[in-house]
Design a protein that fits this description.
Length: about 140
């Protein structure tokens, strides 16, 4: 099998009171515009997974979080992405502030409510795999 380039995405499952923060991708986003996604982004060269996650969450939501643990890794054969998913908690409850060029809406949803949204493919897959079942 030939080697191919792929991207490493680092995403935070930020849970509060049994709900998970999800963000709706802006219409101008080149990949899956309008889909709901977890806060996070691509790993930069020389950056640790944890530093990437803290940076991306802050850039996308203006929230400060603490990383609790690695939930797992996920990849899909059909797409050139590998996702590392971390459980996070808010360090201070504050208002979510989105970057409108990236996300146009946010919601705090239960895992059951998440299933009714148009999800980015990896998020639909991890929900189906039960990787978010710990959120009560």
């Amino acid at each position: 099998m030939a080697e191919q380039q792929f991207y490493v995405g680092i995403h935070g499952v930020i849970a509060s009171r049994g709900r998970i923060l999800v963000l709706k991708r802006a219409p101008a986003m080149p990949y899956r515009a309008g889909s709901w996604d977890l806060p996070g982004g691509h790993l930069a060269l020389g950056e640790s997974f944890e530093d990437c996650l803290l940076r991306e969450v802050k850039e996308e939501t203006a929230l400060d979080v603490a990383i609790e643990r690695l939930l797992g890794l996920h990849s899909m054969v059909s797409e050139p992405y590998l996702q590392a998913l971390y459980s996070c908690r808010l360090t201070v409850f504050q208002k979510v502030q989105l970057r409108p060029d990236e996300h146009v809406e946010h919601r705090w949803v239960t895992p059951a409510e998440l299933a009714s949204l148009e999800l980015i493919p990896y998020l639909a897959a991890i929900l189906k795999r039960g990787m978010l079942s710990y959120v009560k």
